[in-house]
Structure formats: C-alpha cells, structure tokens
Amino acid sequence: MTTSTAPRRPGCRAPSTGAGERRRGRLPITLGVVLVSAVGGLDYLTGAEVSVSLLYVLAVMAVTWVGCRRHAILVALLAAAEGLAAQAVHGTAVALTLPIIWNALTDLVVLVLVAVLLDSLHRAVEHQRHLAAVDSLTGVLNRRAFEIAAERERLRAARHGTTLSLAYLDVDHFKAANDRLGHHAGDRVLAAVARAITGAVRGTDLLARVGGDEFVLLLPETDAREAMNVVQRVRAAAASGARAAGYPAALSAGIATFRYPPESVDAMLAAADDLLYKAKQAGRDRVIGAVASGPWPRWAAASLLPDPRALHSDPRVLTPSAGPR
C-alpha cells in the first residue's frame, strides 16, 4: 500500500476497498434512483399541501457523498423531474406555464448547487486527509500514517499467527549528495529513490519516509527469505533511480522478521533499526536480517536471532567492524 501525490482527476474516484472512499459505477446511481423514487412516492401520497422538497435535497446530498459530482447532477435532474411530475399528478401543473417552468428550474438549480458544493467540500476533506498522511517530498506515507497502518497489520498478524517483516532502509552517504549537489538536487534524488522503491514493492506492502534519508517498508505475511528478495529488489531499483537523478547512491537495510509480532510498532522499528545500524557498521551497501521468534513482553535485542538460511546479503556482516553510522 503505497501512496502517491499525483493530482486527483476531476471525475469519479475509482473503486477502492479503503474506508470512506467514494465509488463510481452503479451503486450511487442506484441509491439515487431509490431515494428519489421514495421521495416522489411520498410527495404523491402527501399531496400539494405538504412540501417534501427538503427530502429531494437530502437524497442528492447522500448520492454526492457516496458517489461523485456526475452522479449527483444526474440525480438532481431526476429529482427535479419527479417534483414536476408530482405537481402534474396533483393537478397544479396541467399546462407548462411560465411560473411552473420557473419553479422547476429553480428546484433544479438549487439541487445542482447542493451537489456541486457538497462535492467540493468532500474533495477538500479528502485532499486534507491525503496531505496529512503522505510525505510532501516523496509522496509515500509519513511516519504517523505508517504507524497507524502498521499497527493494524501488527494486530492482524498477531490474531492470525502470520509472519511479519519490517525493513529499515537508509540511503548511504546521502549527506555527501546534499553537500556536493545542493539540497534541491538532494531532494530530487530522494524523490527518485522513493518512486523507484514504490515501483519495486508489492501492492500489500507499506512504504514510508521516517527521516531525512530513511525509509521503512512493512511486508505483511512475508518470511525472512521472501523479505530479503523484496529488499534486494528494492535496493537495485533505488540505486537505479538515484543514478538517473544524478547521484550514484546505494542503500543499507536491516530486516526484522517476526514470527509473532511484539507489543508495539515502535518495538518493530527498533528491531529493524538496530539491524540497519549493524549493516552500516559493517561497511554500508548491504543488508542484515534476523528472525525474532517471540512472543515477548518488551523488545530485547537478545530476542532477535540471525536467520539460519543465510539471510545476510554479505558474509562479511557476520563479524561487523565498528564505524560511524
């Protein structure tokens, strides 16, 4: 599950399984027809003495919220037609006189305005929600949004007993890129690296930027060997993206695989960060991974055991040398 800052098209949103997202297709139109038909039936039963115009407005609002502007305008047209038909049935609009036409057009304009204004409000709310969840530079999740999504995955893994892997990624010597190319060019390199990683991960993975040049990648239902394959693919894609942006950067990574997730996302991050630190001590441009069997009440470094299936990408990392992070 990666996130992009691509501008939203003015049309209807594509179908999505995410909560709160609007859909295109038959559902909003069907809802609108049902609601307007129900209001029209009520209008017929109550007669001309009782006005149900507000209920038409509520029907249009409901369709706008679950659909999009196009859906709402179509339903507004249907509602205006229903209102005109109700007047004809009640005998108040036997002939289409100028006042009758004016009233119908007024109802239509009000309903369309409601649809347009509510749709604009919904778009603004969604846009603000999007801005609050993504990193403005790279377009991937920010730390807060990642922690919320990762907590859901942690609870799901604990409930179903599935394996969960988390990779902590760092662009090696990125400060040199800023010093040599300038911060604007450095930002361009980071954005290119993020795009490359996004293209290399799976649709179920969660990618976020958590620091200046640090990214985290959550891999649900992924064991140690598969996590290593994903991270190595990510490292190759990121290196290629960085070269294309003008800086030959490499990535170091630490992968923590949990057979039973710890009590918090912070503990998972601490585990992967500790392994990343060891990869940097060992000379950078490499991956160190380990498997945590768990469960445990609190994070402890001793709980993280080296993967017996040669999880390390370089044999030299088995005896890392001290060095600055």
Offer a quick outline of the entry:
The protein has 325 residues and is an alpha+beta fold. The chain is built from 9 helices and 6 strands; from the N terminus they run αααααβααββαβαββ.
Write structural notes for this entry.
The chain is of the alpha+beta class. The protein has 2 domains: 26-133, no CATH class; 143-318, Reverse transcriptase/Diguanylate cyclase domain (Alpha-Beta Plaits, 2-Layer Sandwich). The chain is 54% helix and 11% strand. The chain contains 9 helices and 6 strands; from the N terminus they run αααααβααββαβαββ. It has helices at residues 26-46, 53-66, 69-89, 98-133, 143-160, 174-181, 183-200, 224-244, 265-281; strands at 164-171, 206-209, 214-220, 251-258, 287-292, 304-306. It has a 6-stranded mixed β-sheet with strand order 2-3-1-4-5-6, with helices on both faces. The protein is elongated, with a radius of gyration of 28 Å. 37% of the residues are buried.
What order do the helices and strands come in, and which of them pair?
Elements: H1 26-46, H2 53-66, H3 69-89, H4 98-133, H5 143-160, E1 164-171, H6 174-181, H7 183-200, E2 206-209, E3 214-220, H8 224-244, E4 251-258, H9 265-281, E5 287-292, E6 304-306
Parallel strand pairs: 4-5
Antiparallel strand pairs: 1-3, 1-4, 2-3, 5-6
